[in-house]
Every structure is written in C-alpha cells, then in structure tokens.
# Entry
Amino acid sequence: MRINRARATFGRHETFPLRYGWLPKGFEAIGQDPEIFTKPEEAMITLGVGRNMVNAIQYWLQVTGLVTFDAGQAQPTALGTALLGAQADPYLEDDATLWILHWLIASNAEAATGFFWFFNRFAMPRFRDAEVLHALEEFSAQELKANRSLSTLKSDVSTLLRMYAAEPGRGDEHLDSPFAQFGLIEPDPGAGFRSLRTPRATLPPVALQFAIAQRLNAESGQATALPVRVLLYSDAGWAAPGAVFRLTEDGLMHGLARLIEQDPQRYVLRDTAGLHQLYLRGGPPDPVDILAAHYRGRTASTTLANRRTAA
# Structure
C-alpha cells in the first residue's frame, strides 16, 4: 500500500485492461487446478483466451491480492476467498465487490505503481493522455529514481484509460471493463479526459470501511486513529480512500457518517487540538472479517426477499 522505490513495477498487464469475467474465471480455474497457469495451452482452453491474456489474468489475480503464486503453484488468499468464494460474490454481482477491487488495484503501490500513482498522486482534474504520460515520467525519474522505458510507461497510461474511461469506440475490452460504470475517469470533449472528485453518494459503505481498515492495519503497530485529511489525500506514500474513490471532502464526511451510524460503538469522529480525526474503539477490524460480515448480510437479505416473494 506504500510506495517503495525498489519494488515499483509498471506494464506487467501485457497492455490488457481487466475484463469483467477474468477474475471469477481465473479464481475458479485455480480452485480446480492450482498449476493451471504453468500449462499455457491448457489455460488458454480453460479460460477461453489467448496466451498473452492468460498472463494478464494471472497478473490481475496477483495485483488484487486474490491469489498468490509460489513456484507456479497458485493459492487463493483469505482475501480472495472472502471476495470471490462461494459464500461471497463469485460472479461480481455486488457493486461493492467492484469498488473494493478498484481499491485493491489503486492502493497497490508495488504491483500496480502506475495505477497507484494516478489515483493517489496525479492532481490534474482535466488532462490529455500525453500530460499523464509526461507526469508519470517525471514521477518515475524524480521520486522513484528510475528511468523506465517510455513504451512501458505509455502502456500503463493507455491501459489505465481504457479500463476506466467510458469512451465509445475504444474496443471490446473497454465495453467489458468492470470499472467504467463508476465514472472515476471520463471522456472530456475537447479536453481529453477528466477525473473529478464528487460526493459519490452511491459508494457502498463497506468499500470505504474496507479501505480504512486496510489503511489502519498497514500502519506500524496498527493505528486506531487517522486524520480526515490523511483519508482524503495521499500522505507519505500511502494510498488514501478519498483519493482512490475520487471523493470530495463532503462525500468522504458523508461516507464516514454512514459508518458511524452503522457501528457507533466502533467509529467516532473527534476534533483534537483542531485536528479532525476518525477514531476506532478496540483497534482496527480485520478487512477480511468486514467482507465476511457484508456478504453474510447480503445473503440473508436475499433469502428474506425470496421468502417474501414466494409468500
């Protein structure tokens, strides 16, 4: 979740944006054969894609933290099971799952450095792709102290825009992007693109809760409080929920108010010496536990609704 110069990476997605069915298909495939990605021809048949796409699916499974690979052996993580397991959301039917997957990508400073940089560090609300590329070059040279090839950085910018920007005519991979619907990056007629902070009233509370829990758990000693400013803007190389979800300050405060309303025994906002902070009583919750509780509640609600319909 934090920038590390020695471990920053770009371009490992083979220039393929994440498609809707890739994570469920890949996660299911390794459940049946943990070594499927060591068998390119078999993986192509099982996943129904070409060789380069197989590599891209493996990358996206890793960058989201759903799966680990050790000497070719794939292993679902606790996070992967909590998100895509049979008792969770194996077919990506819940918008909250997609918002959380977006957070997992955009907060991964090591495996998806270009995506992390864009959502946490790139400040231009309106831009052209050339401006993004130039700014990413400067970031790589000045902050990472590394000279990445222009073609590699360009592939990151192109893949990012195709994955998030709902622009007609960009190709089939865009039409199947799980994130285009959120409007985090949009075409801006006459100006290229825009990526604006908005209140985002439809952001599921569990997505914000999960992101905050991950941020707190990543702190040394597991912090129990964070300034609202740190949740809103990237600080000291960390990902910020407000930046990743493109929230205005009012939008973030509304989201925090919903969390407090849902669990007033755990969350509280306080002003301490003029510093507005979110406090957690009893320490930060386990992000995986947050997901388990969410999908249990979703299943219970669906079951109840089905019973009412049947009655």
Notes: The first strand starts at residue 67 and ends at 70. The beta strands are 67-70, 73-76, 126-127, 186-188, 192-194, 225-227, 267-272, 275-280.
